[in-house]
Design brief:
mainly beta, eight-stranded mixed sheet, 21 strands, globular
Amino acid sequence: MTECGKDTPCCVKGFCNRNAMYCAPFNCEPENSRTPNSCWNTAHCVDETSDFNSATAFAQVADYKGDPHTTQYVSKFEPSNAKHANEQLELELVKQPDGKGFGAVVTGTRAIQYGTVTAVMRSGSTAGGVVSSFIIRNDKVGDEIDFEFVGNDKTAVQSNYYWHNDLDYTKMVRSPQLTDTTHEYHAYQIQWTPEQIVWAVDGKTFRTVRRADTWDPKDKVFKFPDAEAYVSFSIWDGGAGAKGTADWAGGKVNWAAAPFKFAIKNVSTNCYFKGNETTYVPPADAKK
């Protein structure tokens, strides 16, 4: 068991430190830290628009001091291949000496449990193997709602959801045909309520999953994402993964087609629960 000291109280995967990469609630492990209170408090959802035309909407994780009022999105690890450039947020997949790609993950500094999130963005998946993702996820519980782009399918986006890391890839649904997602900006929206999840592009709904339809009679549970989670964006090398992942992503990355840059212009969040941002209100049926 890791024993974190007073000067490095926060634990992540067996390592201790005191900066945001270790103490921010989306990374920190309270059960392994010096005390359960060593991790920074979770900041909850507020209605806001993060415009990446402004450099203040994003910060590198090393520069984040835990105040979500000053920074809305941060890089999740270092070294960081995410930056503010060209009046937008850019995440890049970079080739490493071993031939594999090292990408980037950017996460919101506030957690959300139900609400509508809209991101205006352009995929960075301009070649097979490159995956760009817009995700609402709780890493500790394993609940996820996502949009994902793969380089061998530039005229659509894929949608999926998972409950408690039950990775059922057969539930993926592809959007109707879009103009080239690697050249054109589109508005991608997830509407998440206690009753359903709706995926839409440019204001047009193409998929709805109702909680009532996720009942598993064997396990006697609704397999519907309901845990408070974080909005994140990432670009990663799917071609370097296991065969199933690599085949889905479009095979090995053709590095001659680089650079691979995932661009986000802005993100709008509308919370389902209103009121005091520091107060967590569980859904009415949370204990049922």
